[in-house]
Specification:
two-stranded antiparallel sheet, alpha/beta, 191 residues, 5 helices
Amino acid sequence: MHEENGREQALPHIVWIGPGRLDKILDAATWLEMTRELRDLGWRITLICSGNKGVESIRGVEVLTFSYPDIYLLRQLVFHLKVLWHILHSSSSTSVVFFNQPSAPWVWFTYQIRKLNRHKHPLYIMDTRTVPMEDKETSSIRDRIRGWFYNHINSWANTWVDGQTAITRRMADWVKIPDQQLWGVWPSGAN
């Protein structure tokens, strides 16, 4: 909370969709340390990732986890349906939905509901942390499909998200984020 014009104002509430299991990935600091820092500044952050316990502590950071079956496409469907349910039920108190490319097709549905209701919030911000790097001659079909997906998600996001962030300015240029949509550049693990 902070004082503004003699009264307390709540800082924004961010629903942040993490990439997979933050207790298992090497670059988890990107999500965990930034969440810790923003919470220390008084922001409300609901960091969501996959897991089994509901609310759990990962490296001292409280995270909301949703379970899913360990079947490739089914896990994305089940996880994101739970995320959508959470967004829809918390949208009146949510200022920002922050997500990466794999979540874009799913959160687009809640963005459309926001538009239908003519609400200005929550804002939808996509964060780009990766680009396809497959070798077209040696990559598997699965890798080529993933590369196609990332390329198209980046182009598609330019048509509907409220803003975007990227890991570097070079990556923002590579995926062609329009200047007016680029809200920030921040490296992984920044605090």
